[in-house]
Amino acid sequence: MNILGLYNYWIVVVLMMIGFYIVIAHENLIKKLIGLGIFQTSVFFFYISIGKVAGGTAPILDEKYQLYSNPLPHVLILTAIVVGIATTALGLALVVRIQEAYGSIEESDIQAQDTLDQLECSLEAYGIEHAEKLNDQDFNE
Amino acid sequence: MTAIAMLRMRDLLAVVMLSGIYSLISASLFLDLDAVDVAFTEAAVGAGISTLLMLASLKLVGRFENKSRYKPALALGVVLVTGALLIYGTLDMPHFGLADAPAHLHVAPRYINDSMAEIGVPNIVTSVLASYRGFDTLGEVVVVFTAGIGVMSLLLVSRQTKEESQTMVPADMQQQIILRVVAKFMLPVILLFALYVQFHGDYGPGGGFQAGVIFAAGIILYTMLFGLSNSQKLFKRKTMELLTAVGVLIYGGVGVACMFMGGNFLDYSVLRHDPVHGQHLGILLVELGVGITVASVMIVIFFKFTWRTVKHQYKE
Questions:
Q1: Does one domain contain both A94 and A111?
Q2: Residue to substitute from B16, B31, B34, B151, interface A, most A β-carbons within 10 A
Q3: pLDDT at residue B99 greater than cutoff 80
């Protein structure tokens, strides 16, 4: 019994951290979705490797075999993969709409445009007329 | 390995291609870990459909990533600390492949030992999926259905004018004679295989989820090679959108039917006089519902993305 018997978890952790890093360090929304995908597969590997029994076989009953791997994680992950692609498609659809609304899918560009909009709104709320003109001047200077 | 390359590259097209390869490698790893059903699904979903959806959206949003302006040092620090903590957490986990790990001690022995007598289906994954955890799977199917509705409402296509619906949308790969001929031979085989996977899921690896994605992948292949208009003649938009709901309805309907016949919700044993026959019938119907919903949701999602691309090109 040595510590190396835990290697499956370490692979999972490394994959998970790669996905996590992509999600928090990259600004491109599509890249973030891909990072989430890697994160997701790392969880799949975690479940499936827990289900594995050394010397076992695939859980389809047959008289020739006695030892089977645990079928429960397989069921959970099988459905999770299909649900995962459906939700990824939803995310991609959102990204497409963001691109159409903002003309960019980089996070910082989107935030800059949002702050600009807020500025304009608050100026209008204070009753400053021609808010757009004012802003244009500000940005020209 | 592949994941690291994906991390570094800024050309998103290459990243998407790599993610396809990554999925294929994952699928073979799942196979090695005895999860045949999972490997099946991952190969069809990850290497097939998700790569295509990513490509379709890349066409809409542009291919290159901007140079990151943040300093990645902070992110790297957070990641390293989290990773170290997680690895520390694994130290008291059971070793890989151990037969007496806690995960194998609770419900799994019941599934492995008794499912043949109770359900009469050799593939334990299918019997757990459709019968023991049938309620859970109903939830998953509803999630897939909801995601499909979400994509439909996000990527609404304004009602087509007559002109538009009559103009043929040429496929990008119209010129590729070899691909078209090979695809024509392959397509019936792929669809037949999907049906085999659907109805043979009781005995071998397979079932509604896998069959649904394989069927959808076949249709998507056809759409790419012969154009959207051709395939929409065969798979009308209205019909497909209706089918997404029909699948869920079949699943729920079987459950309600069980209640009317005196059992619990999704307790198939009452469907026939012999409980095992009832289970067989119930699983078959439920898997059919799953297959219909999954296939039609995938096809609808792909059509939505492609329509968006076509509209995009018309505008320019």
A1: no
A2: B34
A3: no
Which tokens hold the place of B155?
A: 């990527």
Whether this model's pTM surpasses 0.90: no
Domain that includes residue A115, residue range:
107-141
Q: Do A52 and A111 fall within a single domain?
A: no
User: pLDDT digit string (tens) for B297-315?
Assistant: 988 888 888 877 777 776 6
State whether A41 and A21 are in the same domain. Answer: yes
Residue type, position B141, single letter: V
- Is the Cβ of A112 closer than 8 Å to some Cβ of chain B? no
Contact assignment for B128 to A72 by CB distance below 8 Å: yes
Whether residue A38 sits in one domain with residue A65: yes
Nearest CA in chain B to A69: B34
Nearest to B266 by CA among B142, B125, B145, B138: B138
Give first-to-last CA distance, chain A, whole Å.
70
**For residue range A72-101, what is the model confidence (pLDDT) as tens digits?**
888 888 888 888 888 899 998 888 888 888
> What's the pLDDT tens digit per position in A114-132?
888 888 888 887 776 554 5
Q: What is the mean pLDDT of residues B255-275?
A: 78
* CATH code at position A20: 1.10.287.3510
Q: Are residues A70 and A129 in the same domain?
A: no
- The CA distance from A80 to A40, in Å, is 9
Do residue A27 and residue A95 come from a single domain?
yes
Which residues share a beta bridge with B64? B11
Q: Are residues A99 and A133 in the same domain?
A: no
- The DSSP-derived string for A57-96 is B-SB--TT---B--HHHHHHHHHHHHHHHHHHHHHHHHHH
Assess whether A111 and A89 both reside in one domain: no
